[in-house]
Specification:
Two copies of one chain form a homodimer. Chain A has about 375 residues and is α+β, with helices and mostly antiparallel strands. Helix content of chain A is about 35%, strand content about 15%. Chain A has eleven helices and eleven strands.
Chain lengths: ~375, ~375
């Protein structure tokens, strides 16, 4: 049986080094982005969204991505000074054209627009095109929480690592979906998952540790046989959760995030990896739903609390210490990291030193 | 590796008997429901929704459910003459109070309301409470298609068969999600999945055939060990797709369909099976999204066609005859069954004879 209720960081994070204070991380990211040409206000927004991911414990989608973003920004593969605009607008819908800017900026505007639309109409659905990697989807879904709203996020990944069910070619991204639901005294429910069984982060961790990956994660492209050697994972395709079901979910999330916003999907998606030299036209969407249009917010929050407690206190399987409701670990980590700082691996700290040297800014360790 | 791109009927349907013309099925269902006290107009709507499921090939969710509905209606467990009303309404949201009527009626009104709201606002999100089993979710998502809209459906099942990840108690339904996306010349994309790996229908089929069920479908409630004897499946809990991921999906779909609409979830849900003697307070939701608010519908349809063809023509794994995009089989079956009739098993036909005798209506085989 499978017990794997944990956030991605638990499986993907390398060994933690001494934690770095949040303000130092924030200032370092903002300085680095400003040195890449972002206006200071934009750099601050992106830094906040990256820190939101680190605070939530999604270590693979926060500051760890900075060394990847910097060369793209310097090369102009991502536009450091975009004119992000609302290209289409209805009473409860909008499409944001990101002008190939940082996905964090584009999706922050998209989420804020969805929240404003939901305030007026009860629900707001905002798509984005010409966006880029925005870090952790749960961060944007969670922006709705403080407004007493439910947030939903979906994306068409800017790289294809999964095949459609029965297929041998990577035609689909591991298209993620995130849902955030406000609670009262309990932590909000925040689910943030890719539609693949495993992530490349988890595979990398097995590689570093010299352990084989389990069957059911990756299959090769010619025979469909399991690949268990993590070094060979890139030769295969990642398997979706639940076979044709996860493949179908990746497909519909991708169509809603991609073609509906005139963004890339399927054959349009080309993985340039580190050498990416052209716009990805990444598509995402975010939905905000105003709870008060359904029932009074305090009543809803009390009901969510009750259900969270019922689930957490329900009978456990032997060997299971506690039942984790999605979002519980996130809240615990946020408290810890706001207090103690963000744990960064030695390997990441070295990469960030290189970034600092390249950009001529003060290294993180010196802050 | 897993190749299971097929609709539920393919695994769940028993051996097919001679097909019955669609008009005979429709008249039989409508007569049976009218004999249970439904007004003729309501009986016609429910009959159409049940036939929609049978036409789509979801044999477990169409006329096959009639023998279950009839005693509930006669006993008043489901209200045959409900006053279904819109209890809350915003510019783009609504909540339907189903007055414990047939779920098919409630969700038809919910879908129509969502479509009307989306016509005005771009998106419409309509929840339902005091509803009941509505058959196949894909049917309600697909109602949006002819309006040039995308449809999404979710439900908090009226019985709990899954545990939360790590849990031993069935606290969650196999809460389904369905998404329908219009295409041009290609069949629309229609995904309709439960969040469990298998369904009770599939387990029943293994039971009838005397075959063990695969590991990974059901675990027992004390040790968490696989149950492979289909006769013992009811002692266990169904496993979600992708472990904690599917458990999380079932949770958030359930919260959006249940508590947000003041409908049942978690401990509120009690499975009375055939002896059900009180209202289920089933909750569902349906979303309609007007494509034209994002881009011109013909442009979107052409893009969806292109992507469907790219996927279908992508490289296949050995042994895979063709790649199936969700919705393709549905369209093929609809054409076939509209022409040839609906194949019904001998066992179901016998059950329907009993229904006819009980209600004093002409049996299906005599029509």
């Amino acid at each position: 049986m499978i017990i794997e209720d944990r956030t991605r960081s638990a499986e993907e994070a390398g060994p933690a080094d001494s934690p770095v204070p949040v303000e130092a991380v924030r200032a370092f990211i903002a300085d680095a982005l400003a040195a890449c040409g972002l206006p200071p206000a934009d750099a601050a927004v992106v830094a906040q969204r990256m820190i939101d991911a680190d605070l939530a414990g999604i270590d693979t989608h926060g500051i760890a991505r900075l060394p990847q973003y910097v060369p793209w920004l310097r090369r102009g593969t991502i536009n450091p000074r975009p004119t992000i605009r609302i290209a289409e607008r209805g009473p409860a819908t909008a499409v944001v054209d990101g002008d190939n800017g940082m996905g964090h900026l584009v999706m922050t505007l998209a989420a804020e627009t969805a929240i404003a639309l939901a305030r007026e109409a009860g629900v707001g659905w905002v798509g984005a095109r010409r966006s880029n990697h925005a870090g952790a989807g749960g961060v944007y879904a969670a922006l709705a929480l403080e407004h007493g709203m439910i947030g939903i996020y979906g994306a068409a990944s800017s790289a294809n690592h999964m095949a459609v069910s029965g297929g041998a070619e990577p035609m689909l991204g591991t298209n993620p979906i995130a849902v955030a639901i406000p609670a009262g005294e309990e932590p909000p429910v925040v689910l943030d998952i890719a539609t693949s069984v495993s992530s490349f982060g988890a595979i990398r961790k097995h590689m570093l540790e010299g352990r084989p990956i389990p069957e059911g994660w990756v299959i090769d492209r010619t025979e469909g046989k399991p690949i268990t050697d993590p070094e060979r994972a890139a030769e295969g395709t990642l398997l979706p959760i639940g076979g044709y079901k996860g493949s179908g979910l990746a497909l519909v999330i991708g169509l809603l995030a991609g073609p509906l916003n005139r963004a890339a999907f399927g054959r349009d998606v080309q993985d340039f990896g580190g050498d990416r030299d052209r716009e990805t036209n990444t598509g995402q969407f975010v939905i905000a739903l105003d709870v008060a249009r359904f029932l009074p917010l305090p009543v809803f929050k009390a009901e969510i609390d009750r259900h969270i407690r019922d689930l957490r206190n329900s009978q456990r399987l032997p060997g299971v210490e506690r039942i984790r409701v999605p979002g519980g670990e996130r809240s615990r980590r946020m408290r810890e990291r706001l207090r103690d700082g963000v744990p960064l691996t030695a390997a990441l700290l070295r990469q960030l030193d290189d970034v600092a040297a390249q950009l001529g800014i003060a290294p993180l360790r010196a802050r």
